[in-house]
Each structure stands twice: as C-alpha cells, then as structure tokens.
Amino acid sequence: MVLIGLLIAALAVAFADDLGTGAAPFFGRYRIAIKWVSLLAPLVAVSVLWTASRPRAARLRWGVVVWGSYVAALAWTLSLGLLDTRGGLGHPLTGVDGYLPNVTAAAEPLDFLAAFTGMGSHLTAASSGHPPGPLLLLALLVPLVGTGPGLGVALTALSTLTVPLVLIAAKSAVGERAARRYAPLLVLAPWAIWVAVSMDGVTSALLAATMAMGAYASERFRKGLPAFGTAVAAGLLLGVSTMFSYAAAWMGLALVFLNFARRRPFHNVWMGAGALAPLLVAQLLGFNWMAGLRMAYADYSSRIESQRPWAWWAALSLVVLLVACGPALVASARKMRNTPGWPFLVGSAVAVVFSVVAGLARGGVEHAWLPFFPWLTLAATAPARPGGPPSPLPVGAAAVGAVTAVIVEAVLLSPW
C-alpha cells in the first residue's frame, strides 16, 4: 500500500501543475541530514524493542508500563527532533508562518481574546488557523523557559503525555493485555516526527486526556458521583481542546459512540455540558468560537484552497496517513468490527474523511491529523475476534515504524 502511495506521489509530481511543495506527499522539501545525533534515534528504538520483547516486560506492573512508555516516547521524540538541521529543539515555532511572531499580542489574555477574531490580517498562518489557545499557552511558557531549547523541550514533554493517556484509554477499550502490546507501537510511532516542538502535539495530549477520562467515566462498574464527575471533566477537557484546534471537536463523536455502546447515554448530556463551558466562558470574554472558525476558513481559502489541487492532495494526504501510522493502521482497520474500541476508530476516521472530502486536506496533514493518529491504530493489538486472545507483541511492526520515522526525519525538512 505504501508503494502504491509513493507511486501516486510520483505521478502527482510529474503531472500536477503546482502542488505547492517540493516534498510530496509531505509539505516541505527534501534534503539529507546525517550527523552524530542521528545515532540517538536508532539507539532509542533498539532499546525500546529489546525491552518490550523481554519476557519480564509482560510481568511489569501496569503503572510501570504506562510511565515507562512515557519516558521512552519522550526520548524517542526528542531524539528525532534533534535531527532537524535548523537547530533542532532550539528552533521551535519560528518563521513567518509560526506562532512566536504573535506571542506578544497574547501578553494581555483578556484583551487578546476579545480582539482575536478581528486580528486576522495581523496574524501568521499558524495563529489564524487555530483558536487562541496555542498563543495563550505560549504567552505563559515563553517568560518561564524562553524561546530556545527550553521551550522546545517543554512543548515536547507536554505533547508526549499523549502516550500514557492513550494507553490508559486503550486499557479501558481493548483490555490491559492488548494495551500492553500496543505500547511499543505507540512509543515508536512514525508520527512522533511531528510531535516534537508542536502545538498540535499539545492538542493531541489534551484530546488523549479527554478520551481517557471519558473511557474511565463510562466503565460499567463506575457509578454515582465518580461517574458523573469524570464525565463532566471529560467534557471540560474536550472544550479546552477545541480552544487549541477547531478539528478537535470531531473527537467528541468517539465519546458519544462509546457512551451509547456502553449503555451510558446520559453521560453524553454531562459531557456535552462540560464541553460547552469553556466555549461559553470564552464567549463572555469576547472570543466567539464560530467567528474564529470562519476567520480560519477565510485565511485557508485565500492562502491554500485556490493554489493546491484538491484531487491530488486528497490522494497525497492518504499516503501521508499510511506513512505516519505505519503497519499499525492496517492491522487496526482489519479488527475494527471485532474490537470494543471501535468508537475511537470511528470518531477519528470520520474526522479524517471529512477533512479530505471537504477539501481541507491540502498539505500539512502530518501535523493537522496528529490528534487522530493514535486512535486510528488503537486496535492494532486487539483480539482478532471478540473475547479472543490479543495479537502477539508487534515487534516487527514497531521496528518498521521506527525505521520509517528515522528515514523520513533524515530526508524531510518541513516548516513545523
């Protein structure tokens, strides 16, 4: 499938008038970057695979697996980020289209929220294409850690929280044994390339916390105040996520499906109320979410829509999806009908399909779809039939994903 995808990319380069990129199917340009730090990522990958394949790993306590996976994923993501020839983690979010040029505008949060939707022409592409959440977070972090490597490490550490949070949700959705075997696939996922120094990675972590909380709330034995409180908390987290990315709202479908599948329909009421709360607070402070969405679409229409052919980029975006998710995507899709984790797969798949059909996927999905990638691969180690044993430890698939990540990072220079 990947070879077919790369053939599509070659045809697009040969026959499309202007793709807007020199690195199809990705957005950016190609170059070769080999230096001494290039050894770090392979060493981390080998260490993770060796540790996961030891018989003793299957006997580790669940908490050790969760937080050990976080440490391993952080090492993996940082090692990939150091391959960036522009300065690695010391060169985050800069450039004429990045966030940092607009950080000073968010120094006064209340004034910034009230004025945000009227600042379209004064915002960079990244800032105008997202709600004000990323700039507000950066305005908080920059005085503490600066704009150099400290900021890069802080953002990467926040983004990598996606891994333990997804594992917690996976334990609830597909069982602990399958979640344990999913861990190396998740840690060494190729999409880690775009997690380092990424605001979309922060959105991914927020959504992972939302899904973990929602899964916890909807478990069959969860009753009374704990169920109600965590359902509201999941909704609040979803609302906060939508203040970082307009597309984050799509993952609310996963919780809706999950609550119906687990016969907890009233949880949707509590979660919905919680999700609306941050948006209502923002509205009272002067930021209208729908107005922000219209501003983002207007910016997208003027900069991108008319300049990149939809048909070619629809195909290229799906190629990026295959490369970013690796073999885990195929394994997960094959088991979707047999896994109780299907709500997460369906919710994320709907988000991806909508963006393609609506013509919004025209380059850059490698970072725009970061919040959806983990959920598309969630069922990779789920049982092949309901109630059956989980799949074997996917050492080979994890290794393929790791090799893919190292190769892509070594030859691709993207703007994020």
Topology diagram in text:
Blueprint lengths: L1 H14 L13 E2 L9 H14 L8 H20 L27 H7 L9 H4 L4 H13 L3 H11 L2 H13 L1 H12 L11 H19 L6 H18 L10 H10 L5 H18 L4 H17 L4 H16 L1 H8 L7 H16 L7 H4 L4 H4 L18 H17 E2 L3
Antiparallel strand pairs: 1-2
Helix pairs in contact: 1-15, 2-3, 2-20, 3-8, 3-9, 7-10, 8-9, 8-10, 9-20, 10-11, 11-13, 12-17
Model description:
With 416 residues, the protein is an all-alpha fold. The chain has one domain. Helix content is 61%, strand content 1%. The protein has a two-stranded antiparallel ribbon with strand order 1-2. It is globular, with a radius of gyration of 21 Å.
- Helices and strands, in order, run as HEHHHHHHHHHHHHHHHHHHHE
Placed side by side, the strands forming the largest sheet appear as 1-2
The proportion of strand residues reads under 5%
Mean pLDDT: 87
Keywords: Membrane, Transmembrane, Transmembrane helix
Transmembrane segments: 32-52, 64-83, 137-170, 182-207, 227-257, 269-290, 310-330, 342-361, 393-413
Quick synopsis:
This protein has helices at residues 2-15, 40-53, 62-81, 109-115, 125-128, 133-145, 149-159, 162-174, 176-187, 199-217, 224-241, 252-261, 267-284, 289-305, 310-325, 327-334, 342-357, 365-368, 373-376, 395-411, and strands at 29-30, 412-413. The protein is mainly alpha-helical. It has one domain (2-413).
Overview features:
membrane, globular, mainly alpha, 20 helices
